[in-house]
Specification:
Blueprint (H helix, E strand, L loop, with lengths): L2 H18 L5 H10 L7 H9 L7 H8 L4 H7 L3 H4 L2 H20 L6 H15 L7 H7 L7 H26 L4 H10 L15 H13 L11 H18 L8 H20 L15
Helix pairs in contact: 1-10, 1-13, 1-14, 2-7, 4-5, 8-10, 8-14, 9-10, 10-13, 11-12
Length: about 290
């Protein structure tokens, strides 16, 4: 991996938790409940928070952009989430949830100079992101920028993570991996235990059928672990994802990159140290 792509991946590792907080913070569930969503599980609010920038997207639209979820699982929540609250109301509530979550986590730190600097630099990168052919990135980039630095930082992290995610979906499609095969092949290289991927709603039969298709292509062994070819394919997917995500980072020179990494550190530590995020996720951060 080149130094440039290594930096791009490092920034994903730093920014992803800052975005993901919205799906797990108690303040998010409180706002979701106020809208009328059930909160005994996180999926009603997850699909609402993440899909709202797309407008009243139907199940097919959400399935194509989220990629790794079982269509049957998406059908349980979409478009039903829009009968509870319209996308504009969801977006307003999402911003309030992020505001409250960050204030609860950071306290007076929401006004810290380091966070303010991080928000300015991250916004420069997010505004440089070309969202052509990237539906989730484009939808989030079209939203108005919040004034508060901690909200602007979250918004920048969101645009950039969806920009990367859209590129990742394109890389998976180019590699000939359908949604469930994408997960099976990722589990095969040790990105996470297969049980972690159960959250995406695929049945055991669908998982085994996908494993069989990958075995026919010589990508996994009989026990589900990746072959040499399978590891090479997944490494290529990650490389292409990093390359696709690299463009907007060109707006920052070495000094500003160092400043951004340093200024993000305190926020990242608070988010990771909160215990709100799962220690093992389907993204494979720290594993691939």
């Amino acid at each position: 991996m080149s130094d440039e792509l290594g930096f791009v991946r490092r920034m994903w590792h730093l920014l992803e938790p800052l975005h993901a907080l919205v799906y797990f913070a108690p303040e998010s569930f409180e706002r979701a409940a106020a809208l009328g969503y059930g909160t005994d599980e996180r999926w009603p609010s997850y699909f609402a928070w993440r899909a709202a920038p797309l407008g009243e997207a139907g199940a097919d639209r959400v399935a194509s952009t989220f990629h790794s979820f079982s269509p049957a699982m998406i059908d349980r929540y979409v478009p039903a989430v829009w009968t509870v609250a319209a996308p504009d109301a969801v977006l307003e509530a999402r911003t309030r949830a992020v505001d409250r979550a960050y204030r609860a986590l950071l306290g007076d730190g929401v006004g810290a100079e380091g966070l303010r600097e991080a928000s300015v630099l991250a916004r420069r990168v997010a505004e440089a992101a070309d969202a052509t052919g990237r539906p989730l990135a484009a939808a989030n980039a079209a939203l108005a920028w919040p004034d508060a630095p901690h909200l602007a930082l979250w918004h920048a992290a969101t645009v950039l993570r969806e920009h990367r995610g859209d590129g990742h979906v394109a890389a998976l499609v180019e590699a000939g991996l359908d949604p469930v095969e994408s997960l099976v092949s990722f589990a095969a290289v040790g990105a996470a235990r297969p049980e972690v991927f159960e959250s995406r709603g695929w049945t055991g039969e669908e998982w085994e059928a996908a494993r069989g298709r990958l075995a026919d292509r010589g990508l996994v062994e009989a026990d589900g672990t990746a072959t040499v070819a399978g590891r090479a394919l997944r490494a290529e997917v990650e490389r292409r994802t990093d390359e696709s995500a690299a463009g907007p980072w060109a707006v920052l020179g070495d000094v500003d990159r160092e400043r951004l990494v340093e200024s993000l550190g305190a926020v990242w530590l608070e988010v990771i140290g909160s215990g709100l995020l799962p220690s093992e996720t389907t993204l494979g951060i720290g594993k691939v």
